[in-house]
Amino acid sequence: MPSYVTHLESALDGARLDAQRLQTLHKERPLWVRYDLDAVKHHFHKAMLRDRPATMWRYRELLPLADDQDIVSLGENMSPLLECARLGKTLGVPNLWIKDESQLPTGSFKSRGQALAITMARHFGVTRVAVPTAGNAGGAMAAYAARAGLEAYVFMPEDTPVINQYECQLAGARTFLVNGLITDCGRIVREGKERMGWFDLSTLKEPYRIEGKKTMGLELAEQFAWDLPDVILYPTGGGTGLIGMWKAFAELAEIGWLTTDKRPRMVAVQSTGCAPIVTAYDRGERFAEPFANAATIASGLRVPAAVGDFMILDAVRASGGCALAVEEARIRAWMQMAVSQTGIAVCPEAAACVGAAEQLAAVGWIRPDERVVIYNTGAAQKYVEAIAVELPRIDCRRPLDWEKIEK
């Protein structure tokens, strides 16, 4: 099967770069992968999906691969799109859906981006990779590097969720805890490139994690029969998923697959504990200032400075959406509410989106007739610190206290 990639393009100034070479940034800003969409439109038809496995690779013509045999995969099946009427009623959002990325191979949406990034890294002859991470990206990178036979290095803040620490080490990655934030981890990776000879797989530091995350939008469109929802609430740290979905919708429109011209209003959700994108949005700015003293239980949101800040803000504004910071102290409560009313293992980042939906519905920004999607970007079980609770105990050597149990 041919690749329809034509070139790479600077997201900052439109400069054209060679897609046949290993690329990172242009003027310290990210790159887009561009396709011959006229050719895709001619050769790729919806009917072709009927006979393809239900994985992220079913959209092969819109992904940057020259040979299917090169794919590094752990079985990235389409994540379920689940209607959540009970939770929606509680929030004032009757037509609420959750796309549950927690069921991907490494327990989070990071499987998508790392599957494609590692695939392309190996394609270009990379043998050693490194990544700074706030949690799930490190675990996913370690797993896919192990699958591909690449040497991996992971640097994470020392208070990263313990499950993420263990999964990186278990997959064979050299894993280090850093007494700082993800930006400090990123500096270590950046400074070690020449000495250590590794390729930097940081968020948006190479062009292919976007393409993997883009499949979230392609799947959503297919699951809704090519009629996109009205609103998407997306937990935003580095923002690759939001950027990728907005790109996916543009490409689907270009090849004529969408039933209407309607695009979702994109909501970038952050916590008051770390809200650089929201601050820039509120000020009407295109670039975000680093957020001081970033701290949130939703570790994936703890990104005080995102290299793709302007790409996130451009997408939010172009969609007619908004950026919103929810109260950090309420994230645990929203998480409990969501899991207890849906049975879905909602992570703290997605719980922030639950709070955002409630707030936006209360002020009428989300209307009762609108179809709304929240992305659950990871499994609650990976956040032991966020779900820890002291449970009541029963002493089986004594008569049962049924009043205690009934309470």
- What would the CATH topology of the domain at 81-107 and 210-381 be? Rossmann fold
Number of helices: 14
Based on helices, strands and strand pairing, what is the structural class? Answer: alpha/beta
Strand content: 15-25%
CATH architecture of the domain at 81-107 and 210-381: 3-Layer(aba) Sandwich
Order of helices and strands: EEEHEHEHEHEHEHEHEHEHHEHHEHH
CATH class of the domain at 81-107 and 210-381: Alpha Beta
Head-to-tail CA distance between termini: 62 Å
Largest sheet: 6 strands, mixed
* Total E-strand runs: 13
> Could you say which overall geometry the principal axes of the C-alpha atoms support?
globular
Can you characterise this structure?
The chain is of the alpha/beta class. Helix content is 37%, strand content 16%. The protein has helices at residues 37-43, 85-91, 110-123, 136-148, 162-170, 182-196, 208-223, 240-254, 276-283, 309-318, 331-342, 348-362, 384-387, 402-406, and strands spanning 5-10, 16-17, 31-35, 81-83, 95-100, 128-132, 151-157, 174-178, 199-200, 231-235, 265-271, 322-326, 371-376. The strands form three sheets. A six-stranded mixed sheet has the order 4-5-13-10-11-12, sandwiched between helices. Strands 8-7-6-9 form a four-stranded parallel sheet, with helices on both faces. A three-stranded antiparallel sheet has the order 2-1-3. β7, α5 and β8 (174-178) form a beta-alpha-beta unit. The model has no long low-confidence stretch (mean pLDDT 96).
